[in-house]
């Protein structure tokens, strides 16, 4: 037995290890290059090409080295065949997982209304419910929650307020519903405040009555802090955090904590069905939302958001898992995620609100998932603000106690006696 033959088993074993390493290392490095490159560019073709080049180069290098050890006469051919096979397999896998659109039916959407083309650059869909009978010369603007989750246009409260003489406007905030989507960098609290101020100009009202629900309450407070002279009255329904940086890293109350076991199971199944595509999207959102949007465009990710809302929506009531009407409006997921992130960079509105001269009403439900301290802070931050507590109501007070909700808001805006007493204590009334 000659010297070369005696080393052949060792060479073959080493070659097998190198080939195995190539099968693991080449795809791993390709993924890293894809994700790292996404911090520099949002071009999916460029990122894909870079990943495939790295995959092919690493696979060829390792298989060429393996071939040199075990099959020196055919190492170039073996390296080329294996590298190309691995590249083809990776390309096929990406086409059927990463780049294959998710099979989710979009929500029906709501009929097109009227539009404002604002000087901010936003194209905003809105509905107008004119005052009936004797007009009060007061303009109400409803601010939906989310961010990015509008309703289906005017509701019973809007019609009741119009019947009481108020001019009522309901609009889909930029990036949601029927309104045009924005570039990711434009989803900021400041842009939403600027849009609302531009809307005031379009309406031609000197002062606005703002009714904000959940995130809409946060937006109303931000607007009031920026434009105090243009606020008539404020209604905060189950508002979100007044100033998000105060709650960073703390538990401010999470909707997910109220999910039933069945809802949790549905969520797990739905998230799993998104596979590699949704996982990659979530990683891209951390470093470059433009790249995330290039991977999954608005229409597709909004359908994902609508499905999520259909699963968890009932947790906003006092009966999680029960029947609840989910709006047909198309929600905006990029608006939701990016405005929520931007809230952590906003200035503190409380000093300005401490000087506000406008009546304010804060509404809270017994089963609201938000921390009691968040709701109470609105009452404490605005001079003279009143807080009303609704038994048997969740975060969505208008869903659980619709008649009492309408009566309370209408009474406050018309100056009548409230149907419920104001809560003046510091402790959580639900405790």
TrEMBL record:
Tell me the organism.
Glycomyces artemisiae
Listed under GO biological process in this entry are: proteolysis
| Annotated ranges, domain AB hydrolase-1 | 139-256
Q: Which family does it belong to?
A: Belongs to the peptidase S33 family.
Keyword annotations of the record = Hydrolase, Membrane, Transmembrane, Transmembrane helix
Q: Which residues cross the membrane?
A: 12-36, 42-65, 77-99
Q: What one GO molecular function would you report for this record?
A: aminopeptidase activity
Read off the InterPro entries from this record.
AB_hydrolase_1 (IPR000073), AB_hydrolase_fold (IPR029058), AB_hydrolase_sf (IPR050266), Peptidase_S33 (IPR002410)
Record-linked Gene3D superfamilies = alpha/beta hydrolase
What name does UniProt use for this protein? Proline iminopeptidase
């Amino acid at each position: 037995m000659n010297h070369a033959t005696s080393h052949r088993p060792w060479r073959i074993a080493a070659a097998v290890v190198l080939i195995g390493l190539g099968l693991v290392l080449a795809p791993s490095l390709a993924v890293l290059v894809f994700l790292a490159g996404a911090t520099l560019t949002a071009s999916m073709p460029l990122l894909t090409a870079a990943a495939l080049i790295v995959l092919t180069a690493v696979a060829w290098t390792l298989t060429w080295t393996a071939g040199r050890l075990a099959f020196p006469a055919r190492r170039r051919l073996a390296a080329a065949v294996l590298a190309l096979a691995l590249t083809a397999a990776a390309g096929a896998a990406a086409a059927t997982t990463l780049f294959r659109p998710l099979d989710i039916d979009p929500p029906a959407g709501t009929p097109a209304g009227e539009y404002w083309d604002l000087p901010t650059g936003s194209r905003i869909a809105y509905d107008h419910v004119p005052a009936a009978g004797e007009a009060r010369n007061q303009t109400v603007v409803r601010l939906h929650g989310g961010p990015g989750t509008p309703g289906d246009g005017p509701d019973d409260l809007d019609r009741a307020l119009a019947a009481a003489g108020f001019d009522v406007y309901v609009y889909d905030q930029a990036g949601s519903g029927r309104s045009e989507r924005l570039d990711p960098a434009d989803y900021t609290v400041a842009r939403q405040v600027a849009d609302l101020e531009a809307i005031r100009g379009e309406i031609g009202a000197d002062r606005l009555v703002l009714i904000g629900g959940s995130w809409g309450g946060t937006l109303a407070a931000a607007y009031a802090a920026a434009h105090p002279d243009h606020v008539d009255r404020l209604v905060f329904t189950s508002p979100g955090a007044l100033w998000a940086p105060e709650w960073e890293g703390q538990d401010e109350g999470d909707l997910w904590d109220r999910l039933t076991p069945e809802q949790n199971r549905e969520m797990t199944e739905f998230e799993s069905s998104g596979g590699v595509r949704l996982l990659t999207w979530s990683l891209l959102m951390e470093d470059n939302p433009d790249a995330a949007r290039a991977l999954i465009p608005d229409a597709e990710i909004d359908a994902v958001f609508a499905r999520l809302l259909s699963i968890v929506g009932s947790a906003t009531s006092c009966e999680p898992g029960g029947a609840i009407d989910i709006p047909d409006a198309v929600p905006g997921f990029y608006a939701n995620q990016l405005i929520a992130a931007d809230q952590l960079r906003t200035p503190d509105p409380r000093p300005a609100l401490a000087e506000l001269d406008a009546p304010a009403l804060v509404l809270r439900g017994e089963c609201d998932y938000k921390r009691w301290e968040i709701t109470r802070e609105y009452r404490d931050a605005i001079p003279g603000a009143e807080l009303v507590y609704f038994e048997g109501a969740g975060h969505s007070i208008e869903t659980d106690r619709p008649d009492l909700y309408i009566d309370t808001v209408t009474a406050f805006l018309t100056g009548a006696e409230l149907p419920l007493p104001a809560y003046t204590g510091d402790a959580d009334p639900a405790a």
